[in-house]
Structure formats: structure tokens, C-alpha cells
Amino acid sequence: MDRRPQHIPVLKTIGQFYDTFQIGTAPNDSFTIMRMEDQPKGKLLYMPLFRGNFFRLVFCKTPGIRFLLPDQIVDTSSNCLYFAYPGKIESWQRIEVIYGFICCFTPEFAGIDLLRPSFEKEFPFLTAESDSLISLTKDETNTLSKIAEAMLEEMNASRPDKFDMLKHLLHTYLIQIRRMYYKKVSTKSALQLNHAAIVGRFRKTINDYFMQLASGSVNERPSVSTISSLMNLNASYLNTVVKQHVGLTASSFIHEKTILEAKSYLMHTDLQVAEISYRLQFLDVPYFTRFFKKMTGLTPGAFRNEAIKKFLPHLS
Fold it and tell me: What is the CATH number of the domain that holds 130?
């Protein structure tokens, strides 16, 4: 029996993530860390599609996780690090027993402001433009392991100031990861960082808007004028910044995001094409089908059939 959900849930708290993944009870909703090999045997081997409202760092010492993202498959290897940020659409399959650590934390706990102009420079691996997975050297693995063990020991202690220490250790963890990540990227100018912050707000506003679409809070498809108005920016200026930063017009970016949402529904739910069209606020099914085929080269039905064969072979 196919157990794919009928919607894309938003897990607003770390506790909801623990409950859904069936890995026990989260100690709190601000920060958690646990060894993956210590997770209970009853945990889900297939995590249905979801969005989280927090950051997650999955530090794998051994392979065995297949992340099923809307437009790609990402397989872990020995000594690698996977990144998830608030609003990211994802699901995964566990292929075998995994050794490593999973760390969840809210922006507030880490003192992170996603809209700050320097955010992309400070935490490039926690943005939508980052690679979802990076490989680690043996030395890098050892460095992160020591910090992760220290965080785990502190979290399980009963010291009155343990959260102060956890914030300090998490900050150290993030700085070390940044050093590792920056080995493969170049620094950016102040103007580029400012544009990156605007694009970050643009992405977040679009993500929030699509979440509202899914919940029925809004009843029209997003447009450049709608999004720019929500951001209190001139639509022409927003379009210029987005085009310079990501190589797409703001309108094209919204279209790509719409297709990403449609693909997610087609891959991970049993909703009929008509219902998906309705949820994404298209005027009618034929229009949605034409739009989807123009953007992808396939009809929604054909994409779903291909995606099930390619992305979900173990669930067929």
C-alpha cells in the first residue's frame, strides 16, 4: 500500500520532527543533538516529504542515507555533511544503519538572522543556494566529531548553565563548518552581500507564500508585484537584483519555484493533477498542464510516472 501523504506538512518545531521521524522525544524545541546509531529501531526508514522550520545538520561518518529532493537525489558517503534550512522541501530513505550525528537548532537559539545582509557570508552552507552535501577529510571529520561529542555530553548534563555552553559549542561548530565550506567558494563584495540578502528575503517570502497557498491562507498565484509588495520593494528593482544574482528574472524564478512545488506534490503525494492545479491556484487543469509541459517537457502525469521509477525505486 502506498503511504505517501496527501499534503506537504510543515514541521514547525523540533519536537514535531522527532515525533514524525519516530526517534523519541525531543529534549526541547530550541536545540538537540543525538547520535544516529542511538536512534530507536522503530524510526521511519522513509521520511515523507516535509518542510522544517529550523536548521538541521546531518553529520554522517558512514554512508546509507538517500535524500530525495524535488529535483535531485543526494546519496551520503563516508565522512560528509548534509545541510537543511527552514522551508527546505525534502524527504529521505535510510538504506542501512548510519553512524554520525544529527543536530537541530532554531535560528533564535543560534543567534542567526536570516535577513541580515551578512548572513550569506557568515553561514553560506545554510542558504538555499548552497550545496546540500559536502565531503569531509579525515581531519575535518575528527574536528567535528570532538565538538559534536562535547555538545552531546553537555546536552545530557544537568548543569544550570548548559544552554549557555551549548550556544558557545554550536557557534564553534558552525565556524568550523564555515572554514571547511569556504575552501570551495570565493568571498563576495559588500554589494554582492547586500544583493544576496535581498535575494534571501525574496526566497523566504516566496517560500512563506507557497506555504500559505498549501494551507489555503491565500488564493492567488504569486507574482513579482505581489512578492515585491510584501517585501516593500520596487518590482523593477527586485527583478534587477534577482537577475544579477541568480541569472533569472524574478518572474522566471517564481515559475521555477511553482514547478518545484508541483513536482513535489507529484512525487510525494497521491493527489490528482486537478487537485494539485487547484492548490497552486491555476485557472484550470489544461492551463496547468500546458505550463508544466512548457517548463519541463513532460505532462504532469508523465513526470509522475518517471519520477516514481527514478526517485522512489524502493517504494514501488
Answer: 2.60.120.280
Domain count for the chain: 2
* Residue (of 64, 56, 59) closest to 140 by Cα position: 59
Hey, what's the cell of 167?
Answer: 550556544
Helix axis angle for 250-268 and 190-215, nearest 10°, is 40
91 neighbors 21 (Cβ within 8 angstroms): no
Q: How far is CA 305 from the centre of its chain?
A: 24
**Per the confidence metrics, is the pTM higher than 0.85?**
no
- Cβ-based neighbours of 23, under 8 Å, separated by 6 or more: 34, 39, 40, 43
Domain that holds residue 17: 10-184
Residue of 257, 169, 242, 158 lying closest to 201 (CA atoms): 242
Element (H, E) at 180: helix 162-181
pLDDT tens, position by position, 24-52: 999 999 999 999 999 998 888 888 778 89
